[in-house]
Amino acid sequence: APLKYISPLSRPLEMSAKKPVPFLRQVVSVRKKVHRDPRFDDLSGEYKPEIFMKTYSFLDSIKKQEKEMVQKQLKKCQNMEQKEKLQQLLNRMTQQEQAQKKQQKLRERELSLKRQQRELAKQGKKPFFLKKSEKRKLELAEKYAELKRSGKLESFLNKKRKRNAIKDKRRLPSQKL
After folding, report:
1. Domain span holding position 54
2. In Gene Ontology terms, what is a biological process of this protein (predicted)?
């Protein structure tokens, strides 16, 4: 292999081994790389979920296409192992979609509450802020209303009763005969 030419500027400075090293030798300072995490850095700007969702809204259509593609592959697939992997992927995609919708609903609810507060403030009334417990109660009431509309309330309540019964059984002291 031919020798590669290295310019004298980029290679290290050669020092004679016969000459003693000077007491105050010249040291070249190297700039230390500063690693920045964009999540916590002010230079990246402030995170605003509304702006983020608008900016990356095109990803939703891509995700939808990918989901359809996975569904088609799942129908065609004969290999059970491959089919199981595709099913897991499809489940994960649907769960992510549901979580995103849930987050969007929460955000919209918070925005509507803020709007109401602003309207009250404009009318000259004192602003009233809900506690976390009150917000939770409202969410629960909304969830029950949604379940009632879809007709799944009874099955949901049955499952909840079963879960509570199992918890109660665990809490009771074991009865040994």
Report:
1. 48-127
2. maturation of SSU-rRNA from tricistronic rRNA transcript (SSU-rRNA, 5.8S rRNA, LSU-rRNA)
Helix axes 132-150, 153-171, angle to 10 degrees: 130
Q: Tell which residue, 167, 165, 116, 133, has the closest CA to residue 141.
A: 133
Tell me whether residue 122 is in a domain: yes
CA distance 139 to 99: 15
Residue 38's φ and ψ, nearest 5 degrees, are -65, -20
Element (H, E) at 77: none
> Which residues does 38 contact at the CB level (< 8 Å), separation at least 6?
44
Does 43 reside within a domain? no
Q: Is the pTM of this model over 0.85?
A: no
Q: Return the DSSP state at 172.
A: S
pLDDT at 109: 86
Q: What is the mean pLDDT of each run of 10 residues along the chain (177 residues)?
A: 73 80 80 86 84 92 96 93 94 96 88 89 85 90 91 92 92 74
Instruction: Please check whether residue 71 is in contact with residue 87, taking contact to mean a CB–CB distance below 8 angstroms.
Output: no
